[in-house]
Amino acid sequence: MAYIIENVHLMKGQALTNTSMLVEDGRIMTTGSGFKRYQQMKMDADKYIMTPTHVLFDSTVPLTGSFTARKEYFLKNFLMKGSTVLFTAVSVQFERQLEESLKQAKKDLLDSPIDYVLGISIPLRLLTPSFIRKCKKLHIPAIFLEIDKMGSLEIMPWGWIREALFPYNCPIIPLFAEIQYEKEKQKQLNRWSSWMKKEKIPAIYEELKNGLPVSRSVLKKTGIFPEKSNLHNGGQL
Fold this sequence. Notes:
Blueprint: E1 2-12, E2 15-24, E3 27-32, E4 41-44, E5 49-50, E6 54-57, H1 67-77, E7 83-91, H2 98-108, E8 115-123, H3 129-137, E9 143-147, H4 158-165, E10 172-176, H5 182-199, H6 216-222, H7 224-227
Parallel strand pairs: 1-4, 1-5, 6-7, 7-8, 8-9, 9-10
Antiparallel strand pairs: 1-2, 2-3
Helix pairs in contact: 3-4
């Protein structure tokens, strides 16, 4: 169904512009100063300011449990914070589990009140060319790599991994074992960044923290932006 949002006060960064939007099937078809000749249903947004929604990362979002409990979780941790997009990682332990794990996660999120983006979380041993090719086929936006020991990175066949990632270039995001001291965590991040740059692997050089907005640079590398978190022609509303 198509409809028009009139008198939109659109905030992007520090800039506020006035426009109207023609929306169809959840996408912004076009924007302009007005659509007076159009007969679609209209809604007036003059009393509000519209901004692109935040994408929040949450690796502990409850995919199972009662509907009431999950609804309350999304309300408190997303909607009340002005976010309508969840970015999370589905745990996969074996290559044969990949498609089934993603299907199950999507099934669990059928009644989610917000949109979502699913990456996958894997142990280091699973990062192989054949597994990466499966991820490319399924258009996985990000691979979260569980790292227990930094020394394990040195024995990985990075040349083959780099070749398998090209040209889709799904970024690899580090998940370090729980560390008590921030200084030690930063040291690991620095080592990770240096190693990925040396091997020319598409990767994220920052830690994604639960409950916080994902940075614009990460959104771009994963392809979430401009598809989501961006109010533009052709994008999702």
